[in-house]
Amino acid sequence: MASSKVGVLTLFFLCVFVVGSNYVEAQICPQFCEPNVDYMTCSSSGSTILRPTCINCCQATGRGCQLFRRDGSTICN
């Protein structure tokens, strides 16, 4: 009986370790539009200028994009 409890506990801790080692930290982005964005570029689209309707720095960096003002200065990257 004692050995079965040890086996169950061992299995439990093994499961916790395996599941815990696959944990990925998620980033929660606020849902607001950055008002000064004129255009953005993303690594997935090369140098193509994209004109998002509503985006912010948190969402852009999560997608590998940079946001720019009308004068070409970077808002965030």
TrEMBL record:
GO molecular function: serine-type endopeptidase inhibitor activity
Swiss-Prot/TrEMBL keywords: Disulfide bond, Protease inhibitor, Serine protease inhibitor, Signal
Keyword presence, Cell division: no
InterPro entries per the UniProt record, alphabetical: Prot_inh_I20, Protease_inhibitor_I20
First and last residue of the signal peptide: 1-26
Pfam families the record matches: Prot_inhib_II
SUPFAM superfamilies named in the record: Plant proteinase inhibitors
Entry's family note: Belongs to the protease inhibitor I20 (potato type II proteinase inhibitor) family.
Protein's name in the database: Proteinase inhibitor type-2 CEVI57
Species whose genome carries this gene: Solanum lycopersicum (Tomato)
